[in-house]
Specification:
The complex is a heterodimer of chains A (about 110) and B (about 110). Helix content of chain A is about 0%, strand content about 55%. Chain A contains no helices and eleven strands. Chain A has strands at about 5, 10-15, 20-25, 30-40, 45-50, 55-60, 60-65, 70-75, 85-90, 100-105, 105-110. Chain B is mainly β and about 110 residues long. In chain B, about 0% of the residues lie in helices and about 55% in strands. Chain B has no helices and eleven strands. Chain B has strands at about 5, 10-15, 20-25, 30-35, 45-50, 55, 65-70, 75-80, 85-95, 100-105, 105-110. In chain B, strands 2, 4, 5, 6, 9, 10 and 11 form a seven-stranded mixed beta sheet that branches. Classes of the chains: A mainly beta (about 110), B mainly beta (about 110). The interface between A and B is medium-sized, with 25 and 27 residues.
Chain lengths: ~110, ~110
């Protein structure tokens, strides 16, 4: 089982819609969670981080964390064609490899006009 | 100049050759990582280092080795390259537990 898993996608939404991206993690000791966006051929860039249960909002982006269910999600409101990219979920692990940063396989999002 | 610099940016090498990918950073971070990216597989962790004397294997370390020459430098070596090591390689740094990782521009490696 991968330590961080994302819904496989690809995900296609119309412009203006809400895009919902999901991620689960296996290590209950994980403390910190990140969402990165990666355009084709480019480096990943941070969109959001979340440490506590609940929602965290930043502009059109909302990250949600449920530690009991080991679930992290990212909502993108009013999706724009420029949001089309691969979205990577990441978590820092606990236990003997404390602080190791592990990524999921990514979800490709396409926002069509 | 980029805070995290990878060299080379692109490399084509032959099967069986030894190759080194280099990463240097000016962010003053202790933690450095090497990841490999293949289509549909996200970022797979190869090795990570939390300080100069701390080196750890990641998910896919077989066929790779690393050297942390200084706080600012972390190199990845393929001792005998094989075609299935063709991929995009990223170096990243972070300041500490729970902090954002910053990525280099990536190295596209092709093994023929």
């Amino acid at each position: 089982q991968k330590e961080v898993e994302q819904n496989s996608g690809p995900l296609s939404v119309p412009e203006g819609a809400i895009a919902s991206l999901n991620c689960t993690y296996s290590d209950r000791g994980s403390q910190s969670f990140f969402w990165y966006r990666q355009y084709s051929g480019k480096s990943p860039e941070l969109i959001m981080f979340i440490y506590s249960n609940g929602d965290k909002e930043d502009g059109r982006f909302t990250a949600q964390l449920n530690k009991a269910s080991q679930y992290v999600s990212l909502l993108i409101r009013d999706s724009q064609p420029s949001d089309s990219a691969t979205y990577l979920c990441a978590a820092t692990t606990g236990g003997t490899s404390y602080g190791k940063l592990t990524f999921g396989q990514g979800t490709i999002l396409t926002v069509h006009p | 100049d980029a805070d995290v610099t990878q060299t080379p940016r692109n490399r084509i090498t032959k099967t069986g050759k030894r190759i080194m990918l280099e990463c240097s950073q000016t962010k003053g971070h202790d933690r450095m990582y090497w990841y490999r990216q293949d289509p549909g597989l996200g970022l797979q962790l190869i090795y990570y280092s939390f300080d100069v004397k701390d080196i750890n294997k990641g998910e896919i370390s077989d066929g790779y080795s690393v050297s942390r020459q200084a706080q600012a430098k972390f190199s990845l070596s393929l001792e005998s390259a094989i075609p299935n090591q063709t991929a995009l390689y990223f170096c990243a740094t972070s300041a500490g537990q729970g902090t954002e990782a910053f990525f280099g521009q990536g190295t596209r490696l092709t093994v023929v």
